[in-house]
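Rather than argue in generalities, we reproduce a single protein record, letters for residues, whole numbers for local backbone shapes, just as it appears below:
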Amino acid sequence: MTPRQRRDMRADILDAARKLFGTKGYTVTSTADLAEALGVTKGALYYHFKSKEAILSALVAEPAAEIAELAAHAGERTPRELLGALIDLQAHHPAAYMALQSGDASVLQEHSQRHDFAGRTELIILAIAGPDPSPIQLIRARMAVVAVKEGAMAALVEGGGKLTDQMRLDLLQAAAATLDAGGRASD
């Protein structure tokens, strides 16, 4: 197998995993399901990834890098821009988010710790809350982030993995309205 064929097969495996993890969930999807979807043997999968967890790690790596970048530059964006970026992150990586929310606590904990999702989300929340935030501004910022996460996931499930422009706008307006008491949503 040439290096290009290996890259193509690896990409095909990740595409199949995105689809299956996104529709069936990570916990329910087996390596046999992935192999069947690709028309290959389980051995072919194991040649490219040592386990189903390794496939998930590869899927989570891209959104993890994007959230790290967003957190690193959170102070340079308005609250509304940050909320929109979080919506877009979930819309572009639904399988990774669905897998992490699959209910498998060990999967969630391992990837959360490895990529410091909690710490990076906290940086984003603090940027959304604004400089020297009051306790209610912090609460509202957390509520807005939860609204984005839960709302985007529900919209993606409802839309078969797709988020329309109108749904994105509705989600953004709902999350921004959570901040509105202190005038932060219009920033």
User: Anything to note?
Assistant: Residues 6 and 34 are 17 Å apart (CA to CA). The longest helix spans residues 135-158. The chain has a mean pLDDT of 86.
